[in-house]
Amino acid sequence: MVPTVSKNASVRFPGEWEPHAGTWLAWPHEELTFSHLAAVEKVWTDLIRLLAKRETVNLLAHPRLSARFSKAVAGLENVVIHDVATADVWLRDTGPIFVKRNGSLQATCWQFNAWGNKYDELLADRGLNEKVARLAGVPCVKTGMVLEGGSIDSNGAGLCLTSEQCLLNQNRNPSLSKVQIETKLKTHLGFSDVLWLGNGLAGDDTDGHVDDMARFVNEKTVVHAMVGEKDDVNHAVLKENEARLKRYAKVHGLKLQAMPMPPCLESQDGPLPASYCNFYIGNAAVLVPVFKSARKDREALSILKEFFPDRDVVGLDCRRVVEGMGALHCVTQQQPVEGG
């Protein structure tokens, strides 16, 4: 699909389904994040092998971890290992957001404050986006604003999905108004319109990242999380977001597709932000977090297969991954191809 041109034609944030030069990942190592590290490493092994079929996987990992990841990359030609230590794996938020300016690739480097200064130990990943930009050989543009990649989603043609709970939170950019935040998004990411949802999932320590709630699967279609049970902790929030999406759909000619939510998963601290919407669209496959619920896993995979008939739609068991408060989209960052 050739995207239409947004009002800010010189800058464009490609849709995730558009061709990638590669995907950036960091190898998991932090046991405070993942208490079942071996199970999480198995997910990364599958993730790398599926992505490497048709794009370069750039893996950030300190050499001291080589004994743990060497089997995952054995025999794969499309994997490049970079000697970069990371505090954690959340490259969707700590890596750069790649855009195209007049067809040339550019890395927008936003400020990272560990989701509102919640985790001091993860502030060590500030500046990781600039390192990735250098490794990619792509110019880095510093924006001067706190933003995580998981808090926005692009249709590749000027529309941005985001949430008020996250971007308007006083723990991110207290000196910026809503209009000023929109201006930053339009200036650096080429958006012409920002579609605001309300609050995010219960248990989401990112303050409502949109990639757990609603995602573009093409220029004109949004899949969005829904639960039918009125006593579900997420029912009211997702119903309100659906109402907003319906209003936006009328204005922008969008189609909406409801996506089920998995059965509620909980930790000792409360509900976990498990969602089928946290999928990642690679060149060869759409990789979907699943949670060993036969009916709902199957339904989610079937919905996505309708939109991606030319790619494998593969479920990866993320029950142990989501204990770290994220899933597949949270740990991946796409680098689009040059041109277009």
Which tags fit this structure?
340 residues, 4-stranded mixed β-sheet, 19 strands
Report a brief summary of the structure.
The protein contains 9 helices and 19 strands. It is of the alpha/beta class and 340 residues long. The longest helix has 18 residues.
Helices and strands in order:
Layout: E1 11-12, E2 20-26, H1 37-51, E3 56-60, H2 66-73, E4 79-82, H3 91-94, E5 97-101, E6 104-111, H4 114-117, H5 128-136, E7 140-146, E8 153-154, E9 159-163, H6 164-167, H7 178-189, E10 193-197, E11 214-218, E12 221-226, H8 235-252, E13 255-260, E14 266-267, E15 270-271, E16 280-281, E17 285-290, H9 294-307, E18 312-317, E19 333-336
Parallel strand pairs: 2-3, 3-4, 6-7, 9-10, 12-13, 17-18
Antiparallel strand pairs: 1-5, 2-19, 5-6, 8-9, 11-12, 14-15, 16-17
Helix pairs in contact: 1-2
Structure description:
- The chain is of the alpha/beta class and 340 residues long.
- Helix 1 packs parallel to helix 2.
- The N terminus is likely disordered.
- The protein is globular and about 50 Å long.
- 26% of the residues lie in helices and 26% in strands.
- It has 9 helices and 19 strands.
- The strands form 6 sheets. Strands 1-5-6-7 form a 4-stranded mixed beta sheet, sandwiched between helices. A 4-stranded mixed beta sheet has the order 4-3-2-19, with no helix packed on it.
- The protein has a single domain, classed as L-arginine/glycine Amidinotransferase, Chain A (5-stranded Propeller), CATH 3.75.10.10.
- It starts with 10 loop residues before the first strand and ends with a strand.
- A hairpin with a 2-residue loop joins strand 14 and strand 15.
